[in-house]
Write a structure and sequence with these properties.
Belongs to the CDP-alcohol phosphatidyltransferase class-I family. Keywords: Membrane, Transferase, Transmembrane, Transmembrane helix. The protein is mainly alpha-helical and about 260 residues long. The chain has one domain: Four Helix Bundle (Hemerythrin (Met), subunit A) (Up-down Bundle). The chain is globular, with a radius of gyration of 23 Å. It starts with 20 loop residues before the first helix and ends with a helix. The relative contact order is 0.13.
Length: about 260
């Protein structure tokens, strides 16, 4: 070696340690995507928090967002399958809403996990929407079959789940399309929901459109009258909201790009 020269040994810090479960939950809370304006109360205040915990657990288990989406699909499918296949009872009144709500929570978890891992992908978003589109239609078709098999109802009553399926399919499509157009024109899109009292009241007022509330309604499935009435009220409320919202959304998107 030449006098006066020194050598240094390269140092390595090694791979960054994965944060623990509690720290992961904290990170998810601080990086939470703002809810859309008018987001229903259960979805906004309860389901997102449950999904946050599930996303943190999935992160610890090295699951991918697509795997979480598939877990959500399996849980929802199991809950939906019970409706036409098993006669209503106290057991199904517990299992069906539990499986539907857990599937809904995992549906929230996949997006949160994607953000935690650095952002989602178009393929992941596509898979999530495909699963949701199947779920919202299959649920009401399952009710239609369940009512026909297990309930003593006039034939005209079967039009209720058919109508609800149609309304829900249109509602889901319009929501997704409007959201995509808002993303394409962020400067003209309405602000996200905030923590104000007005925003909270708005979230509560749109309860008929809340999928979480609809899942809870299935706790009445062993009580024919109660379930039929509650389910019908949910369907009628969703229809009224859709009829009122369509002109508003059309006026909103009409301004995009001007």
């Amino acid at each position: 070696m030449t006098a006066g020269m020194t050598t240094s040994t390269p140092t390595s810090t090694g791979p960054t340690a994965k944060p623990g479960f509690t720290e992961t939950v904290r990170r998810l809370a601080s990086a939470q995507k703002p809810p859309a304006k008018g987001s229903p109360a259960y979805s906004r205040f309860i389901n997102r928090k449950i999904g946050r915990v599930l996303a943190a657990g999935a992160y610890q288990l090295n699951l991918t967002p697509n795997q979480v989406t598939l877990i959500s699909a399996c849980l929802s499918a199991a809950g939906i399958a019970l409706i036409p296949l098993v006669a209503p009872s106290a057991l199904t009144a517990v299992l069906i809403p539990f499986l539907l709500l857990l599937g809904y929570a995992f549906d929230s978890a996949d997006g949160q996990l994607a953000r935690l891992r650095g952002g989602g992908s178009p393929a992941g978003e596509w898979l999530d929407h495909v699963v949701d589109s199947i779920k919202v239609s299959a649920l009401h078709l399952a009710v239609l079959i369940g009512w026909y098999k297990f309930y003593d109802l006039p034939d005209a009553a079967l039009l209720i789940p058919i109508g609800f399926a149609l309304v829900q399919a249109v509602f889901f499509f319009v929501q997704i399309l409007t959201d995509q157009l808002r993303r394409a024109h962020p400067s003209q899109a309405p602000p996200a929901a905030d923590g104000s009292l007005t925003a909270t009241i708005r979230s509560i007022m749109v309860w008929p459109t809340d999928y979480g509330v609809l899942c809870i309604v299935f706790a009445l499935i062993a009580w024919q009258t109660g379930f039929v009435v509650a389910y019908t009220v949910m369907g009628a409320g969703t229809l009224l909201f859709l009829v009122a919202a369509l002109p508003k959304w059309f006026r909103e998107v009409s301004r995009f790009g001007r």
